[in-house]
């Protein structure tokens, strides 16, 4: 679990710098240049992901079961993860009312993804992994929404067509991941 915890600290820590130390971040960007900062940020993020994957894999070999997921949890998880894919897609799609409404749909999507996975997994390593992402994404979403409100930030108006593209695209990517890639990459087939 130590490797998993270290990976989470590195990955979520790097992704929290603007949240907790924006002046320091800006000073580093000035000192290193935009490319230098992005390079270090990317390396630290990649290291965090590698440690998370390794740590989670090691912990899965001897899981500590804290509770058994209720029957049907995987179906609810599938629905929540599909919604999460739509929300994450809205973060990058132009002309989406979803982005206009939420401001930070990726953070909302990560929170929904984490909740879905918390429902379907009762091992200590899963609760640590998905719980950490839930706490980070929810906290980040609330802080950024408050900052938006204080700054008077308004997101561009979206359209019904933009929303339709986000929903269809998110569902297609979710289906490919759920039915094909999840089993291959993660080793768990959500639908048996």
UniProtKB/TrEMBL annotation:
Its main location: membrane. Residues 3-190 form the NnrU domain. InterPro entries: NnrU_dom (IPR009915). The keyword Chaperone does not apply. One of its GO terms (cellular component) is membrane. It is a multi-pass membrane protein. The chain crosses the membrane at residues 40-59, 71-95, 127-144, 164-186. It holds the Pfam family NnrU. Signal peptide: none annotated. Keywords: Membrane, Transmembrane, Transmembrane helix. It is found in: Membrane. The keyword Transmembrane applies. This is NnrU family protein.
């Amino acid at each position: 679990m130590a490797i998993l915890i270290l990976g989470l600290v590195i990955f979520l820590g790097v992704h929290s710098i603007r949240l907790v130390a924006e002046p320091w971040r800006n000073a580093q960007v000035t000192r290193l240049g935009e490319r230098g900062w992005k390079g270090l940020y990317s390396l630290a993020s990649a290291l965090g992901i590698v440690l998370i994957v390794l740590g989670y894999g090691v912990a899965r070999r001897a899981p500590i079961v804290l509770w058994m997921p209720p029957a049907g949890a995987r179906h609810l998880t599938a629905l929540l993860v599909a919604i999460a894919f739509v929300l994450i897609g809205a973060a990058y799609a132009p002309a989406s009312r979803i982005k206009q409404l939420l401001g930070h749909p990726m953070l909302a999507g990560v929170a929904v993804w984490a909740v879905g996975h918390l429902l379907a997994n009762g091992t200590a390593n899963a609760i640590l992994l998905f719980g950490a992402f839930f706490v980070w994404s929810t906290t980040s979403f609330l802080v950024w929404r408050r900052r938006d409100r204080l700054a008077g930030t308004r997101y561009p108006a979206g359209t019904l067509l933009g929303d339709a593209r986000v929903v269809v695209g998110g569902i297609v990517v979710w289906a490919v991941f759920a039915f094909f890639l999840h089993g291959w990459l993660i080793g768990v087939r959500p639908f048996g």
